[in-house]
Every structure is written in C-alpha cells, then in structure tokens.
Amino acid sequence: MERKALEVFQRYLRLATGKPSFDQMYLKHFDYVKVSPQGNLFFSLQVSQEICDYNGFLHAGALTTVLDAATGMSLWMKLEEAKLMLAATLNVNFIGNPKIGDKVIIESKCNGICQNIGHTYAEALLNGAIIGTASNNICIFNRVIP
C-alpha cells in the first residue's frame, strides 16, 4: 500500500506541475508523509510567505487547494487505475489560522465510491488540533490518466 500511495503522490505532482498553474506555487511546500494500514493518506504543508495572506496566515484558498488535492489522491488510492476526476461538491471549514513557519498535517480518506462518485474527507491539523476540514464528492470519469 505504501508503494501505491507514493506512486499516486508522484503522479499527482507530475500532472499538477506539468503546466504553469497555481498548483506549482503550493506544491513546493506540500509533501507525502505516509499511508495508514486503513488507507488514509498523510501529507505535510510547510506554511511560507508565498501561500499566506497579507497578515502572514495561511491563505484559505491555499488550504482549500491542498485539501482538494489530498482528497483526490485518497480516491485514486481506491481505484484500480488513475482516472480523470472533478470535484462535484467541495465543502471546506476553517477553524484555525496557521502562520508562516507552521507545519500543517493533512489526513485524507475515501469513505466510499457509489457508481461514479467518490465520497472523501480530509482534516488539516496543527500541533494535533484540527484547523480545517473538507468533505469532497468527486466525479470519476472513464478516461484513464497515463
């Protein structure tokens, strides 16, 4: 399972950074940590000025993007092959304000797949306390990603 998780993360990095985009900015600070025996994925996000607002706190849009990416990767873990996906509903709740220098841990999981919709969830933690959550229902398309 560890090998598949690392392959999923590397595939995501390759796809997300293949063209100039917002993804390139935050992915410099985003790293794979581990996969649990249950299949939950863990990532870290090092908060830097580049992804903060003018007050020096992690920008809500940056955290939303990271949570979206993490939930998508947790869905890929459940599929036999990587397929094109698109968030149908992404609900994010912000509970805390990490600042420059903080390290945020993201835990994401796929709760299940019903036909062509994956139901996923993620938590962002700072020093063990939840600072954000995401619930993401993701459409799965038939197109396989190389």
Automatic annotation (TrEMBL):
CDD domains: PaaI_thioesterase
Molecular function, one GO term: fatty acyl-CoA hydrolase activity
Presence of the UniProt keyword Hydrolase in the record: yes
InterPro entries: ACOT13, HotDog_dom_sf, Thioestr_dom
Domain Thioesterase: 55-111
Signal peptide region: none
Record's keyword terms, sorted: Hydrolase
Listed Pfam families: 4HBT (PF03061)
Family of the protein in this entry: Belongs to the thioesterase PaaI family.
Protein name per its UniProtKB record: Thioesterase domain-containing protein
Higher taxonomy: Eukaryota, Sar, Alveolata, Ciliophora, Postciliodesmatophora
